[in-house]
Design a protein that fits this description.
With 424 residues, the protein is of the alpha/beta class. It folds into two domains: 178 residues, Rossmann fold (3-Layer(aba) Sandwich); 241 residues, Alpha-Beta Horseshoe (pyruvate-formate lyase- activating enzyme). Helix content is 36%, strand content 18%. The strands form five sheets. It has a six-stranded parallel beta sheet. It has a five-stranded parallel beta sheet with strand order 3-1-8-9-10, with helices on both faces. Strand 15, helix 10 and strand 16 form a beta-alpha-beta unit. The N and C termini lie far apart (52 Å). Bound molecules: iron/sulfur cluster. Iron/sulfur cluster binds next to loops.
Length: 424
C-alpha cells in the first residue's frame, strides 16, 4: 500500500498539473462527470501556496451540448484490446487525442508535478495512455496516479507508468474544489456527504469511504454559490446516500439552495434510497428543483434483495413512487435503477422487476452489474471467473454478464432493454 498524503501535504511553492484522463470504452455517457476528488486536492494545494492547473481530457474535448448543461464528448474509434477481441461492439477513445492533449500541455507552464486521476478499474487503458503521453510531452516531470482505480487494483495500477501511485483512499481535503480552473461552468457538482450507512455486497462505497460523514453545510452552500457564479445552471449531487439523515442536513441544504438560487436545476444521478422518500421528502425534492431523480430499487427478486440487504421492498417502492407523483413529478421523471447480471440472477427475475416498475408508470433504467474488486460479491465472482481479478477490463459492466459470466446472454439483455424502453 502506498500513501503519499504526507508528501502532498508538504508541497509548497510548486506548480502542479492535475489531469483527468480520456476514457476508452464501448460507450460513455456524461452523467455530469467531473473529477471532484482531484479538484478538491488542487484546491487544497493552491491554498497551501502552490500554483495549480487542470487538463480535463473529457470536458476539454466536448463536441456539442446536451440537456441540463452536459456535453457530448468527442470520440474516435480505436482497436479493441485483446481481452475484448470477441465482443461484437465498437470500441472508442473518448476525450482529447494526442494532438489535443499536446496542445493543452503546451498552453500551460511546465509543471513540477503531475497528478493523474482515475475512476473505473476497467478504464485503465485511458489512464495508461494518458501517462505515456504526459511522460513524452513533459519528460522528467514526476507523475502520481490517484483516484479510485489504484485503490481497488493497487497491484495492477503499479503497471501504469506513473512514478508513484496513491493506493490508499485520501480523505476529502478541507478546501474548496478548484472549479474556477474550468473558467465558465455549464454545470456544477456537489457532495454533501461521503460514504453510505448501508453495505450492499456489490458496492465499493465503504472501501473508498469507510464511514458515512456529512459535510459542513456552510461550506457546501459556499461551493454551490461559487459554481453558480461561474455560470452553472445545473447542479448534480455525487452523494452515495444523499437522503440519509435528511431532516438535519439535506433539507437545510435544499432550503439554502431554494433561497439563494431559485431556478437552479438539481440532479441526483446516483440512486436515491427509496425508504427515505416520505411525503415531506418528495415535496422537498420537487420544491428544490430536482429534475433528475433515480430511485435505487435495483430489483425485487430474491438475489437482488439479498445482495442489497433488502434496500427496498415492492411496497416501499410503490409508496415512494406514489409520493413523488403526489408531489408533482410526472411518471416518466421517476427513473428507477434496475440491476442486471448479479451472480445467480435470472433474466425472468429482472423482467419481473421491469414490469413492476412500469406498472406504476415509472421508468426503468437498467444498470449492468460490474464486479468491483474488494467487495464481498467480487469474491463470489472469482470462484467461478478468476480471470476477472487479473484483467480489470473484464470487470466492465458492458462485458461482464453477457460475455464473461454468461448469466444473462446478449439476447436476453437486449430483450430486457427493449422491455424497459418500449413506449407506453
Ligand atoms: S445503498 Fe448504494 S451507495 Fe450504499 S452501499 Fe448500497 S449500493 Fe452502495
Amino acid at each position: 500500500m502506498s500513501d503519499l498524503s504526507r508528501f502532498l501535504d508538504s508541497l509548497e511553492g510548486c506548480r502542479v498539473l492535475g489531469v483527468n484522463p480520456p476514457v476508452m470504452d464501448f460507450s460513455f455517457f456524461d452523467l455530469w462527470a467531473k473529477p471532484l476528488g482531484l479538484l478538491f486536492l488542487l484546491g487544497l494545494l493552491r491554498k497551501r501556496g502552490n500554483e495549480v492547473y487542470l487538463i480535463d481530457c473529457i470536458r476539454d474535448s466536448a463536441a456539442s451540448d446536451k440537456k441540463y448543461g452536459r456535453r457530448v464528448t468527442a470520440r474516435r474509434e480505436i482497436p479493441k484490446p485483446e481481452a475484448y477481441r470477441q465482443i461484437p461492439r465498437r470500441f472508442w477513445h473518448y476525450g482529447l487525442d494526442v494532438e489535443g492533449l499536446a496542445s493543452r500541455v503546451r498552453s500551460l507552464p511546465r509543471p513540477d508535478l503531475i497528478l493523474v486521476t482515475s475512476v473505473m478499474t476497467y478504464w485503465y487503458k485511458g489512464v495508461f495512455w494518458c501517462i505515456e503521453q504526459l511522460k513524452d510531452l513533459l519528460p522528467g516531470v514526476p507523475v502520481i496516479l490517484g483516484g479510485i482505480y489504484p485503490v481497488l487494483c493497487p497491484e495492477h495500477a503499479s503497471l501504469s507508468g506513473a512514478d508513484e501511485v496513491q493506493t490508499v483512499p485520501l480523505p476529502l481535503p478541507s478546501a474548496t474544489p478548484a472549479m474556477d480552473l474550468y473558467g465558465r461552468l455549464t454545470f456544477g457538482v456537489a457532495l454533501s456527504s461521503t460514504g453510505c450507512p448501508r453495505r450492499c455486497t456489490y458496492c465499493a462505497s465503504s472501501l473508498l469511504w469507510p464511514e458515512f460523514r456529512r459535510r459542513d453545510l456552510g461550506r457546501l452552500v459556499a461551493e454551490v454559490d461559487l459554481q453558480v457564479d461561474l455560470g452553472a445552471e445545473d447542479l448534480a449531487f455525487y452523494d452515495d446516500a444523499l437522503l440519509a439523515a435528511k431532516e438535519d442536513h439535506f433539507y437545510p441544504l435544499c432550503q439554502g439552495i431554494i433561497d439563494r438560487h431559485p431556478g437552479l436545476r438539481l440532479h441526483a444521478p446516483n440512486g436515491l434510497h427509496v425508504r427515505e422518500i416520505d411525503r415531506d421528502c418528495a415535496s422537498m425534492l420537487h420544491r428544490a428543483g430536482f429534475k433528475t431523480i433515480r430511485l435505487s430499487l435495483e430489483g425485487i427478486d430474491e438475489i437482488n434483495l439479498e445482495a442489497g440487504g433488502i434496500k427496498a421492498t415492492s411496497e416501499e417502492y410503490r409508496a415512494a413512487v406514489s409520493r413523488l407523483l403526489g408531489a408533482g413529478y410526472r411518471p416518466d421523471q421517476v427513473e428507477t435503477y434496475v440491476l442486471v447480471g448479479l451472480p445467480g440472477q435470472k433474466a425472468s427475475d429482472i423482467a419481473e422487476t421491469i414490469r413492476f416498475v412500469r406498472s406504476l408508470g415509472a421508468k426503468a433504467k437498467l444498470a449492468q452489474y460490474s464486479p468491483i474488486p474488494g467487495t464481498p460479491l467480487f469474491r463470489e465472482v472469482l470462484c467461478r471467473h478468476p480471470e476477472v481479478q487479473h484483467e480489470p477490463l473484464l470487470q466492465n459492466n458492458t462485458v461482464y454478464s453477457p460475455f464473461v459470466s454468461g448469466e444473462i446472454t446478449a439476447e436476453e439483455l437486449q430483450h430486457l432493454k427493449d422491455l424497459a424502453n418500449y413506449p407506453g
